[in-house]
Design brief:
The chain has six helices and no strands. The longest helix has 25 residues, at about 5-30. By secondary structure, it is mostly helical. The N and C termini lie far apart (about 55 Å).
């Protein structure tokens, strides 16, 4: 059994690794680095639908999820983009991810949905900003009651 105090840090690590991997996919397709776009090995032409826009979502949402800023909306957008990728690009080639090459899309989709639902964990800019916005509570003295 995992102690409850590890939930936040482990969720944070899961979020950071998932965000980093997603960011790398976007950078590869947008800038032609890390092997480039999986289809051509090159950068995608600017504005090309849907690939360039998907790569932009991967880069931006991956970075936001990595650092834990606007985590829930970024993770939800990333999850939706991967659901689109699975059903539009992969699923027409067959229903099973093992057969249609859609495993990464399915895994990213469900991983980002998990982050969107559970939140960023304790090690996130969202958590830091929430702590800074929380009102400072001070100890108050109780009024004396006449006897």
């Amino acid at each position: 059994m995992v102690p409850a105090q590890l939930n936040g840090p482990v969720l944070s690590l899961f979020r950071m690794v998932t965000g980093l991997l997603f960011l790398c996919h976007g950078a590869a397709s947008l800038f032609g680095v890390l092997g480039g776009n999986p289809m051509t090995g090159e950068a995608l032409p600017v504005g090309e639908w849907p690939g360039w826009w998907a790569a932009l979502i991967q880069l931006v949402c991956g970075a936001l999820v990595l650092v834990g800023l606007l985590t829930r909306p970024a993770a939800l957008l990333a999850s939706g983009s991967m659901a689109y990728a699975y059903f539009v690009v992969h699923q027409p080639d067959g229903p099973l991810p093992l057969r249609n090459g859609g495993e990464p899309a399915a895994l990213f989709c469900w991983s980002f949905l998990l982050v969107a639902v559970l939140g960023p964990g304790t090690w996130a800019l969202d958590a830091l900003l929430a702590r800074r916005r929380a009102p400072v509570t001070t100890a108050t003295t109780r009024p004396s009651v006449p006897a």
